[in-house]
From TrEMBL:
Pfam entry (one): Ras
Gene: Rasl11b_1
Entry keyword Nucleotide-binding: yes
GO molecular function, one term: GTP binding
Name listed for the protein in its UniProt record: small monomeric GTPase
Species of origin: Alectura lathami (Australian brush turkey)
Highest taxon, organism lineage: Eukaryota
Kinase among keywords: no
């Protein structure tokens, strides 16, 4: 949620509950206005969901940004399963853009997932990869 709000408002708010939200935002990209609809689902809620609601969100979306914390190995380890689930649900719909984002780059002293691990995972799963800091 912090990363989404940072993208939408350029402000950082550190604490969020475990609620999902759908945001709409217009942005100019390469001289064209693009309307984004962002369905922001916290990971803790996602784990409590049944497969049908997760599949509903996957069918709704055209692309995916999966965010993990570089300070939380479990949030990284779940990514291959999430990506396999997305690809299986979108099978037959062509190439699905998926980007893996390592967040909390500003917390290097708490890092447990290396940048190289993130890059290699993205490469092996044919996804984009970035490391960012919502706080910065």
């Amino acid at each position: 949620a912090a990363l989404t709000v940072r993208f939408l408002t350029r402000r950082f708010i550190g604490e969020y509950g475990d609620m999902e939200f759908i945001y709409s935002h217009t942005l100019t990209v390469d001289g064209r206005e693009v309307l984004f609809h962002i369905w922001d689902v916290p990971n803790s809620q996602d784990q409590a969901d049944d497969g049908s609601s997760e599949e509903k969100r996957i069918q709704w979306a055209d692309s995916f940004v999966l965010v993990y914390s570089i300070c939380d190995r479990a949030s990284f380890n779940i990514l291959p399963f999430k990506i396999q689930f997305i690809k299986a649900a979108k099978e037959g719909q062509g190439q699905v853009p998926i980007v893996i984002v390592g967040n909390k780059r500003d917390l290097q002293h708490q890092r447990v997932v290396s940048s190289e691990e993130g890059r290699l995972l993205a490469l092996s799963l044919d996804c984009g990869f970035y490391e960012v800091s919502a706080a910065e």
